[in-house]
Predict the 3D structure of the following.
Amino acid sequence: MTLREQLRTSLSRLFEEPAAHFLRRLHVPPNAVTLLGLGVTAGAGHLASRGHFLWAGVALLFASAMDMLDGTLARLTGKASPFGAALDSVADRLAEAIILLGVQMHYIRTGDNAIAYLAFGAMVASFMVSYIRARGEGLGVTMKESGLFTRTERVIVMVAGLLTGWVPAALAIIFLTSLFSALQRMYHLWKATQK
């Protein structure tokens, strides 16, 4: 078991499952958790656009916790569905766009154009990582384990950057590692389709 899998298992046991059991007792539907998390992310994006990075980081951390719960709650309640999985994926892409757009708007407003371009680059690179995986899986290629830097890592870096105020450094890390991951996945897809 890799370190990532060990951390994921521990997080599931300590947080996701107890929280999902609590939400099940309250009869909260999984799709409502997905949409609420997206709404909180929209709030985080607005806070980031106004330069309130610390509060944006807190809101994004809360939204990310909700994003972890929807799938667990769906499995626990027997309400897992293809539509729920699609809604979750769409919400994930929107959430990334919202927070990076909020950061970009802040730097446009303050005249830091280089960092605004970096935020845009981070958005495009992160979308390419997800798109290449989806396109590869649409072609029947297993893509889950390809790519060093996935959405989970991008969210962790963004939250850390917002909470510490080191947002330009977080954007640079997301841009470079996402670009590398996109190239990794493209290479994996190329190799798989040569057979």
